[in-house]
Fold:
Amino acid sequence: MHEAVDRVAAIDAAAGERRDDRLALEAEVTIVEQSAKPMSAADWEQVAEVARGKLEEARRLSPNDSKIYASLAISYETLGQYEAALEVLQQARVIDPLSVEIAGRLASLYAFSLNRPDLALEEARRIQRIEPSNPDGYSREAAIHQRSGNLPASLRARKKSIELDPDDHELRAWLSQIYLAVGLVEPARQAVEAAESIGPGEPLTLVARALFEYYVGNDDAALAIATRVLEGKQAGRHGSEFWFSVLVIYDAFQNGHYDRMLEIADGMVGPVDLDEPVLDNEYGAFASLVYRVPALIGQGRTAQATRLIEAIARCFEECPDPRQDWERLHDAALIEFYAGDREQALAMYADMIDQSPVFIDWWFVLDRDPMRDDIHRAPVVAAAMDRFRSRVDAVRAEIRRAEIEGDGAMPGEPEVVGQARSMLSEKLSVPAQSIRLEILESVTWPDGSIGCPQPDMIYTQALEPGIRIVFSAAGVEYHYHARDGGTPFFCETPGKALPHD
Structure:
């Protein structure tokens, strides 16, 4: 590793950049070197622990380097220490309030570990305000909406990110998954093909193609991609190993290859002693519940399955837990099912379906998982799935309407008003048509806050031409501000604008 550190430091020096803190560089190189090979969740935890130690010392030596704080927060988050990660990022915010990197890390932490989508969206939109041309702010917004099941809003943000960076294959791959979630096969196909034309052979491009083939019934083609990637030990990205592993597990279960299921599960989350199982993270417990337990039952190893279920239940009680409420209900229902309380389990599973959002991979998890056939055939669960599909149909109709008519704009309204109207419609959960436009005017904002200054933030002092929009709904006014050509955002405490010349 020291040789690699020396090479990177020399490259930085040649480019005029200084790396005064060698410890931080060593931590970064450790992560990069390890991520070049397939990694289980347990492997990542080991790397994160090594990196955390180096980065803590680096922070002590360079207490004003916000980039060190961002890397340190990732290590804490990987280790499941979410509050520690949040504390580090809040300290970094004080050091560099305009850092889009810190805003991005906070958006991810709030959305996926702390289950605060409201705060996550604030951070994503902070990126959009600080750097309007940066696609990351919109990509993060898309991911946040996607996690909470608001696929129309996710689609709008994803398209905006692609507009800003049309050459990013990953954005196209994610776009294809939104379309698949609502059954829009042809737009999904086009998005996959666009991803392949930009980034052929890249992890997310391969995931997009494999999922598309699986969705349309070409199971062999999907399995061939997954098997080739896993056997070739290609490095993953954004959880791509998960998708490939699950495709192989599904096939192994259908063919009675239970040893293969256990082997793949070990590769996903690290091995576990099945005679005396101990689980120390939620992801490992989840993978054990949905993949290891069915394999052990299939092998007739009921005693080991029982011990593993007990270890899973303990971990769900004690381990750091980033799950949403409906995900907890899903896991609790499976524990009851495998523990033998079928009637209670099926009722819980049906409740879970009714409570869950239209999440992006619902069809993969709920419809196509062969290990749950007994559950899905139960009348109470089948009825819940019918209700869920009705919700999917409604979302598909909304997306189709928006793509034909535009996103929320009334006839004759500028696009920026339609965008703001859609945001407020989503915020209030009311029809866009019920929102009244009161004011639309061109203004000059006095500084980079765009008329919406936030505490502890420092803004550029240049004048900013822009737009002020005021809506009313149920007698209450709502203010949206934007730069010229920028995306509007809700402003709870609007400041004054200068008249536009």
User: Anything to note?
Assistant: The chain is about 65% helix and 5% strand. The two ends are 59 Å apart (CA to CA). Strands lie at 436-445, 464-473, 476-483, 489-491, 498-499.
